[in-house]
Amino acid sequence: MQRLSIVVVERDAERARLVIDSLRAAGDHDILVISDEGGLARQISSRNPDVVLIDVANPSRDTLEELALASGPLERPVAMFVDRTDGGLTRAAIEAGVSAYVVDGLRPERITPILDAAIARFQVFRRMRSELETTRRALEERKVIDRAKGLLMKARGLSEEEAYALLRRTAMDQGRKVVDVAQALVTAAGLLS
After folding, report:
1. Class of domain 5-106 as given by CATH
2. Which residues lie closer than 8 Å to 93 by C-beta, 6 or more apart?
3. Which of 1.10.10.10, 3.40.50.300, 3.40.1110.10, 2.40.400.10 would CATH assign to domain 131-192?
4. pTM value?
5. What does the alpha-carbon distance between residue 79 and residue 8 come to, in Å, rounded to a whole number?
6. Cβ-contact 52, 26 below 8 angstroms
7. What is the pLDDT of residues 100-141, one digit of tens each?
8. From the CA atom positions of the chain, what is the Rg in Å?
9. Cα 117 to chain center, whole Å?
């Protein structure tokens, strides 16, 4: 396992020591333990770790959401260890973006495989979020281009291919993207109507 910067959120000093020992046995990691959850978001943000491990004996929904949001699950893998839970809390953790939600507490011998799984799952979801964002952007661009083509077809009596060729030629002449030229045309048409 590569060297990681890891923040461990653990109130109990003895449990924190067990976690640190387990992580050190798995590799030479840069580990910071946060025992006071006050200002957790600020503490984690200032450290900007690769991974966050959270150990909460019996979380309430509010505690779980606060911890999950403070640890930045969309920015980094977060593994949360709880002693007991219910379906609603599990769902809330998953929806908040927690990469690994482990019931039955934190056991030192399980930390490394769970950490590996949390990192792998996080990377898969980050790739999926990126692909989804790219697809959404492409769809929005396609809609703008189609609207601009429709305006050109109506105003100048062009075919769809001719309207697109005009947009493309204008974009090339101006050193801009086709979608930017199309957006300008749609905006201008909106102002004129």
Report:
1. alpha beta
2. 64, 68, 80, 101
3. 1.10.10.10
4. 0.69
5. 10
6. no
7. 888 877 777 788 888 888 899 899 988 998 999 999 999 999
8. 25
9. 16
